[in-house]
Amino acid sequence: MRLPQARLDQVLDRFREIEARMSAASDGAEIVKLSKEHAELKPVADAVHALERVRAEGPELEEMAASGDAEMAAMARDELIALKERLPELEREVALLLAPKDRDENASAILEVRAGTGGDEAALFAGDLFRMYQRYAQNRGWKVEIDSASEGDAGGYKEIIASVTGDGVFGRLKFESGVHRVQRVPATEAGGRIHTSAATVAVLPEPEDVEIEIRDQDLRIDTYRSSGAGGQHVNKTDSAVRITHLPTGIVVTSSEKSQHQNRARAYKVLQARLYEMQREQLDSARAESRKSQVGSGDRSERIRTYNFPQGRVTDHRINLTVYNLPKVLEGEALDDVINPLIAEDQAARLAALEDELA
């Protein structure tokens, strides 16, 4: 993709403007805002500078290649070949940085996994999925905190909600939103027949620097005694918290031991869900363009099948099949599925940029 110089100049002009305003600013809030924009623009400006340096070398090398000095001309021609090979990759790198992207790409996220059709087996599968994400997060240095959990009668989870904190969490996990299907012989099946069960996954960005108005009069907050394993571990106080957002009907719960902590966690999940509603309303205005995007986040859409008899994982959005199911469920090879989805999303963003520049 040949990026017009005017677009590159626009980026560099804005970056220099931000740097000048930062050196002159005295207001704390303005400094924070400028610093954030500076951090977002710096990798773009650095990539543009690198591209411009390489572009500038071309005419110089062509002049040297045409010189009378045979040895120097040969060296220049070799360097010119290497430069022409490197240039498209640099231009693609800059184009990706300039392409429209999700504003929440680097945000932390709320992860919700719920058992779907399939009874006990669906709850067991929901547990397998959550452990997959836990291990994947651990491998990437992210922190996972469980906000609430409802265990299945035979194990696993009917529902589990957790906060995943780290850099770029939402940008990678957003492609997991949707219906996940499993085909396997359940442990509860005596006849050895293959069953199909499902679980739904929702990944919501944790809002950062976004005003989500939640009025006290719009909330109903209830406390109750959370269920426990029995014996000395049973919860004997009404520490679990349920918050109902009356205008939308959204209900969130948290059932750890501290009521104060439960209130804070439930409120955070409520913020994330209200923010997701705002995102969906904004996205609906771009519904046509979203049809071509991978990470639409439609939770009713069947996105992936985990087939145990054949050891394969199939992502239906991009017709991708990998035959390393055990490692995917261990979180070890989940990138084998996520990386192609990111590549597909990048291609869609580059196409959007080309349309913009056309």
UniProtKB/TrEMBL annotation:
Single GO cellular component term: cytosol
N5-methylglutamine PTM sites in chain numbering: 232
Disordered: region residues: 282-302
Pfam families tied to this protein: PCRF, RF-1
Post-translational modification: Methylated by PrmC. Methylation increases the termination efficiency of RF1.
Localisation per UniProt entry: Cytoplasm
Coiled-coil regions, chain positions: none
Main location: cytoplasm
GO function terms (MF aspect): translation release factor activity, codon specific
Basic and acidic residues: compositionally biased ranges: 282-291
Domain Prokaryotic-type class I peptide chain release factors: 225-241
Signal peptide range in chain numbering: none
Record keywords: Cytoplasm, Methylation, Protein biosynthesis
Family, as annotated: Belongs to the prokaryotic/mitochondrial release factor family.
Entries under NCBIfam families matching the protein: prfA, PRK00591.1
Function: Peptide chain release factor 1 directs the termination of translation in response to the peptide chain termination codons UAG and UAA.
Entries under PANTHER family matching the protein: LD18447P
HAMAP family from the UniProt entry: Rel_fac_1 (MF_00093)
Name assigned to this protein: Peptide chain release factor 1
Taxonomic source organism: Phenylobacterium deserti
Lineage, highest ranks first: Bacteria, Pseudomonadati, Pseudomonadota, Alphaproteobacteria, Caulobacterales
